[in-house]
Amino acid sequence: MGVLETIYIVCLVCGILYALASLIFGHTGGDWMSHGHFHLPVLQPILLVSGATAFGAAGYLLNRFTSLSDLMVLGLAILIGIGLAVASYFLWVEPMSKAENSTGYAMSQLGGKLGEVSTTIPANGLGEVLVKMVSGTTFHMAATLDGVPIRQGSRVVVVEVRDHVLYVTPFPHDDAKKEEE
Questions:
Q1: Which of 11, 13, 79, 102 lies at 20 to 30 Å from 47 by C-alpha?
Q2: Sequence-ordered list of residues with C-beta below 8 angstroms from that of 113, at least 6 positions apart, any chain
Q3: With 90 as the cut, is the pLDDT of residue 63 above it?
Q4: Which of 12, 11, 5, 15 is nearest to 63 (CA)?
């Protein structure tokens, strides 16, 4: 067994072990290369490992089952490894990076949202407002911004958020509807 064949086998076995560890333990250590001051798509662990695994497998198979020279096998194995890594990037990493969305939100994002009063908001106290978000509906403590009580069932607009309390004002179109009734 030559040096190149040993390198091919080591790359192949390490890639298979990494794939098995990722399957069993999940992607817990996969972001270690992306924690830095810069981010290069080439340094994604999945790309490096898939390229090295393909390099090892192609090199081993070409070396074992063809009569190509060692230099030709090395060149083809490198091209196959790079090709698979590039294909992995465009078929897996790039689409998945665009698909990741968070259902979380920050309290500061609630400004301007419409809500419905679920517990009457007194003039100088707290009530509760239901706000519909992408992730579902959420209930938050609310106080009136104008110092005017707001009844349960009224629609409100969140004007600002301070200390985890929504400061709301009645939705203007609801007042017009109530006057018509």
A1: 102
A2: 131, 132, 133, 157, 158
A3: yes
A4: 5
